């Protein structure tokens, strides 16, 4: 169901509040670039620091502003199954096209617990559910067998794979139904995942260069492999520098350098550290923009 480029969009803040003027400008950038959709209230959107009212309002406003021009897959995950169900039900009422549900973090449930958690969410969803497998953030990993079992549920239709293990992804892709899509959760693995049957990417870097990510994936799907690779290798330094500190610290700094938003994060996230690496990252972003990357 879900394929192409989905931007894990940041949440801009100003003086402690959500800066909707900047947010809508960022949505315009994404829509004009031709992304397939955006993912508000994910890790990149600093969802753990959003209050419940803010979380719901941000999703509502995203759906309203997008107005079906692009898809909206709302982040509704939680380490509490009850809370994840409530967030999912509210997002469905607000008109989202799908929900992204991350592995329960901190609790470290068993595979049986993970299965029951996601099945419960899917039972209460009226839209497609994208699983989010990211053990580096959550401390627990969906096994191949668990994903296979979850894929049997009619509402669980996709997975954002962020294990960073291409071998695991290949083994998983080999046993999943053909209509169950796998998207990369790591920008730097987008083309490798496409080469083994992946369907796209939930991207952080597309906050900065959405049109380039869209073109890269489109060229690959058209069989224009060398042209796609050229963009991929051009962006490779950004793929790595964008994670020089914990996401979304670097990407928010980059967007502030380009004038899209203030470089404001909510604790415990802090601004990008100063130093030579940051200076080089800024120089890279500004030089690529000068070259016309968008």
Estimate the helix proportion, in percent.
Answer: 40-55%
Number of distinct beta strands: 10
Overall geometric form: globular
Cα radius of gyration in angstroms: 18 Å
CATH topology: TIM Barrel
Determine and state the CATH class.
Answer: Alpha Beta
Whole-number count of domains: 1
Strand order across the largest sheet: 1-4-5-6-7-8-9-10
Largest sheet: 8 strands, parallel, barrel
Span between termini: 27 Å
Bin the strand percentage.
5-15%
Structure report:
With 294 residues, the protein is of the alpha/beta class. The protein has one domain (4-234): TIM Barrel, CATH 3.20.20. Helix content is 46%, strand content 14%. It has twelve helices and ten strands. It has helices spanning 20-33, 52-66, 81-93, 111-123, 135-138, 144-150, 166-175, 190-195, 210-221, 225-241, 249-257, 276-290; strands at residues 4-7, 13-14, 17-18, 37-38, 71-75, 98-102, 128-133, 156-161, 181-184, 200-203. The protein has an eight-stranded parallel barrel with strand order 1-4-5-6-7-8-9-10, surrounded by five helices. The protein has a two-stranded antiparallel sheet with strand order 2-3. Strand 8, helix 7 and strand 9 form a beta-alpha-beta unit. It is globular, with a radius of gyration of 18 Å. The mean pLDDT is 97.
